[in-house]
Amino acid sequence: MLIVQNSVIILILHHSRMMPLVGGHRYLPSTAVFLCEILKLTICTTLALYDMSRTISPSTPATSLFSGLVAAVFTGDSWKLAIPASLYVLQNTLQYLAISNLDTATFQVTYQFKILPTALFSIILLRRRITPRQWFALLLLMVGVAVVQKPAANTASIQPLKDPHLGIHFPWSLAGFRGVGTPALAPLSKRSATYEGIQEDDALEHPSVDASMGVAAALMGCVVSALASVYFERILKDAINPVSLWVRNVQLSFYSIFPALFIGVFYMDGEKIARNGFFAGYNWAVWCTLLLQALGGMIVSLCVKHADNISKSFAMSISVPISLCASVVFFDFKVTTNFVLGTIIVTSATVLYSRAERRPRPAPIKIHDYEKTTIDPKSARERSAPMKHPIAPLKSEGKSSSRPSSPARHHSRLGSAKGFFGSRDRGD
To answer: Smaller CB count within 10 Å for the chain: N or C?
Structure first.
């Protein structure tokens, strides 16, 4: 499920940013981030209430249930989650900026760079130890991301302009230049007319792609997301009272609403929203994107709870080739040698980093025969001979002691003494 979510969300998110305008407008990322947090809060609150209802009596009123949830959400240390919540809002905003300027395959491969800052922040905040094999994997990861971002040799040049016929039939208009058929003059296709705001309208109809800005936003998003996840893990480990998974998600979603609303919606895009409306540019693709993003956070939480981080890393690695194939089919992505080589390096580094460390097996324990009875008394009793229990005790059998046994009746000392002294008296 996590593999499908990672692959589909990037594809539909890229499509929502590159699709034709809806009513002459394109939706704002700030409104999408705010609505996504509202959806997360709604879903997590519902699941948290259901989880709490299974542990209480069915006759408990709903007001007590809501009061218990509010008390669990606003505990003494819940304010600490405001920091990772704000970081997650910034990461989602940078993700929209990156996917608007990069193709889906390049974005997926570049976002694997998150493993490096996650490892560094884990060393600083969690005092974790990184093995030499993992350091080597991180080095491979940096090399792979650099290879993916290396531009291929541009075959488009101005050589088609060096045509001897151009000296006679030289085009005198932009339309004539566009008819030459060379990609070197593609940027000259702007309209000759001008008016105030023509650049903004043209950018809405034909969104320009800035690869440098997209890569910078993706790398910055990796750093912010890594810091948020490691800090969140630090909070979970330092927590005194255990809190359920859904209550933690409610806390994150609640504290994420404030920066998304006041900084994103009001401060950054307040003028545009007041002019065009909050839901300008929304259609089914945008709503599907928001729903998948909200459910994606739940799926990641369940994966971390019921599986482990290794399964999550494998899911991210498998989603990279899936996104590559989908980009080739749906977005006419041109696969280059650098991209294939970099993807292989990044995927291998991810698998190598998340592979469990092999520990040497301990030497077998040798148990001598005289020690087995103390370790397994039951087996010792089974190996020993059965004890005999006679029906009537024998006269010769008795308790052994260090004292000499009593003499027999015909060796009685008393009788011997009587005979000796009696015979002596009789003789007198």
So the answer is: C
Could you tell me the pTM of the whole model?
0.69
Residues facing residue 25 across a β-bridge: 22
Token representation of residue 171: 């085009």
Q: Which two tokens stand for residue 268?
A: 């950054």
Question: Using one digit for the tens of pLDDT, what is the confidence trace for 56-102?
Answer: 888 888 888 889 889 888 887 788 899 999 999 999 999 999 999 98
